[in-house]
Structures are given as structure tokens and as C-alpha cells.
Amino acid sequence: SSMEALSLSPPMSPPVVLTQDELKRIAAYKAVEFVESGMVLGLGTGSTAKHAVDRIGELLRQGKLSNIVGIPTSKKTEEQALSLGIPLADLDSHPTIDLAIDGADEVDPHLNLVKGRGGSLLREKMVEGACKKFIVIVDESKLVKYVGGSGLAMPVEVVPIWWATTARKLQSLFEESGCVAKLRKDSKGEPFVTDNGNYVIDLYLKKEIGDLQVASDAMLRITGVVEHGMFLDMATTVIVAGELGITIKHK
Ligand code: 5RP
Predict the structure, then answer these.
(1) What's the Enzyme Commission number for this chain (predicted)?
(2) What gap in Å lies between CA 65 and CA 58, rounded to an integer?
(3) Whose CA is closest to 45, among 110, 113, 100, 85?
(4) 142: exposed, middle or buried (C-beta count within 10 Å: 0-12, 13-18, 19+)?
(5) How far is the CA of 15 from the centre of ligand 1 (A)?
(6) b/e string for 215-229 if b means 16 or more Cβ within 10 A?
(7) For residue 227, which phi and psi values (nearest 5 degrees)?
(8) Among 19, 46, 54, 232, which lies 20 to 30 A Cα-Cα from 214?
């Protein structure tokens, strides 16, 4: 019968299709291989960084890492690290960080990043700007040809007062790129508030912006802008997990 024919044929292994979350975890675990005992660590924020923090907690618990101090980049990561028993400190007492591990929303071919869709860009930039090594962990969906190339938001943290004026200035700065600036809202339709009590303006670009450093400086010169989510020339290593394996890119 056909049943017998089926049972006679060798068992077929199912195709291995990894979910996006599994790819994120693979990249995160690879990055944690660079962590050594005694390090001061910048702990990133987001669904990818969460796996790295989990792994660091696990290695501490197993006694495979010791003497680690973590500097969290958000209240959420702080809570997670505390629940895992990772000793924490702050940037003021540890101005030099050995290694930071964090996700990103976009990675361009020069390893420039867009970050902050999770809303933690200010602390992330403070921590990641203070570290000797910054490893970015992403699944391959985050790779873009140019900054803004995903068509998704480029976030800018702004002070709440007169945010619409700041949003207008940001939008006109990138007029030639067809920029649309929108106030980020939370699930209740209220303005999204960052850990620092600020708002986020999400910039949507239709075209590539020219000189990124010029754009960065121009945004920071707008009174009312606190910080933006372009992380230029900051990543020292990017670990990309894809269906075909892990790629490690060094600056
Ligand atoms: C938060 C960030 C995150 O690193 C970024 O949003 C990536 O998040 P995820 O790993 O969940 O895709 O910059 O401010």
C-alpha cells in the first residue's frame, strides 16, 4: 500500500527555517562570546539585546563569567539585568566601558546605524559613545543600502515643550528627501514618553540624505532636539545572523 511505500522511504529531515527571533538570539549569543570576566559592559535595549543580557546572566549564574558590571541603556534593560542578578553601575562612576552590545534598526554598508525605534536612543548613544568596543547584533533584515533605506522611522528625541515647532524644523531640514515628521504615540494614542521624560519625532525619508555627518550636526543644532538615532562611525563590529549563517563585519 501507499502507507508501506511511505514507511520504507528514508525519513526526511524537515527544512530548517529559523524565526527572526531565533536569528536575533544567534547573533546575541555570538556577541557574548566576546565578553570576558572583569569587564564593564554596556547593556543594550530591544528584543535582540534582550537575548544578550539573558546570556550574560546565564554565564554569571553558571560561574563562567565573574566580576562583570553592567550599565543598562534603559529602565527596561535595568529591570531585566536586576532580575538576572547582573551587578549594575552607571556611567558617572564608570566613564569608560569595555564593551557594549546592542541591536539596531538599520545597518548601512559603512556600519552606520539607525537606532531608537525602541525609544532608548539617548542612553544608548551615551553608553555606546563611551565604550572601547561596540558590537551590534542584528538579523539580516536590518541591513540597508543607506541610512533611512528601510522606509521605517528615523527617531529623534525632543523636549516635549513646543514639539510641533521642533518637528517642523526637522521636516524642513530634510525637505529634499521627502521627509515626513510624526510625533510617536503610545498604544493609548498619547505621546510616547522616553525614559528621560522626552518625546520622539519619527522621521520618514523617501530618498537618501546626502552627507550624514552634516545632517547629524544640523539636527543637533535645532533647539529642542535632544539627540537623534543616527549612530555614525560608532559600531566597531556588526554580527549579522541570517538563514545561511553568521557574518561578522569589523570596522
Ligand atoms: C532601541 C534600539 C534597539 O536596539 C533597536 O530598536 C532594535 O530593536 P530590536 O532588537 O527589538 O529589533 O535602538 O532604542
Answers:
(1) 5.3.1.6
(2) 9
(3) 100
(4) buried
(5) 29
(6) bbebbeebebbbbbb
(7) -165, 160
(8) 46
What's the distance, CA 137 to chain centroid? 8
Between CA 225 and CA 240, with CA 184 as vertex, the angle to 5 degrees is: 90
Residue (of 67, 18, 76) closest to 47 by Cα position: 76
Number of H helices, E strands in the chain: 7, 13
Ligand 1: which of 107, 120, 234 to mutate, judged by most atoms within 8 Å of the beta carbon? 120
- Nearest 5°: phi and psi at 235? -70, 130
Q: Which positions ≥6 away from 41 have C-beta within 8 Å?
A: 35, 56, 68, 69, 70, 71, 97, 98, 99, 100, 101
Nearest C-alpha neighbor of 181 from the set 153, 161, 208: 153
Q: What is the 8-class DSSP label of residue 143?
A: B
Average pLDDT in the 242-248 region? 95
* List of residues 6+ apart from 212 with CB closer than 8 A: 112, 147, 230, 232
Whether 119 lines ligand 1, by a CB cut-off of 6 Å, is yes
Q: Is 155 in the pocket of ligand 1 (CB under 6 A)?
A: no
pLDDT digits (tens, 9 = 90+) for 134-165: 999 999 999 999 999 999 999 999 999 999 99
What is the C-alpha to C-alpha distance for residues 24 and 242, in angstroms, rounded to an integer? 9
Report whether pLDDT(6) > 60. no
Q: Which ipTM did the prediction report?
A: 0.97
Cα–Cα distance for residue pair 174/219, rounded to 1 Å: 10
Pick the atom of ligand 1 nearest to 120's CA: 14
Pairing between β-strand 97-102 and β-strand 40-43 as defined by DSSP bridges: parallel
Q: In the numeric block, which cell numbers belong to residue 209?
A: 540624505
Residues 248, 111: Cα–Cα separation, whole Å: 11
